[in-house]
Amino acid sequence: MADSHTVLDCLSRSLQIVDKAHEQITERGKEMMEYMEGGNIEGLVEMYDKEAEILSSNVPICRGHDSLTIYYETLKKFNEFMKTRHPYEIHTLSPFLAMERGHCSWVSGGAKEIVKSRYFVLWIRRESGWMIMQDCRI
Fold this sequence. Notes:
Layout: H1 2-38, H2 41-46, E1 48-56, E2 62-63, H3 65-77, E3 82-94, E4 97-107, E5 114-126, E6 129-137
């Protein structure tokens, strides 16, 4: 009987870790959208791990804070920040890694039309909280 209680305790603890990770990542996603709405490039870049990268269509890979700053400055210049971001899956891979997938949209600067797309984010948990390790926009 003691073994079944131990297993249940472990499962309960695992569920708490997963729930907390999902909650924190959801909040970080909302924070990201607030930074985009406000044009806060410094805030956006600080959400990324030091060697994080962005993979986006028709754009060279951006790796590291300097490249991310240039990427977001360019988006700001052309008013192409994400307008909507709707996660449909957050999957906790471990207590320190999680992936998020969802739908997003932005207004294309040149065409002035709404572009709908999908995204994938790999999150890593650091001492300071959840940070983006890889941001893929498809």
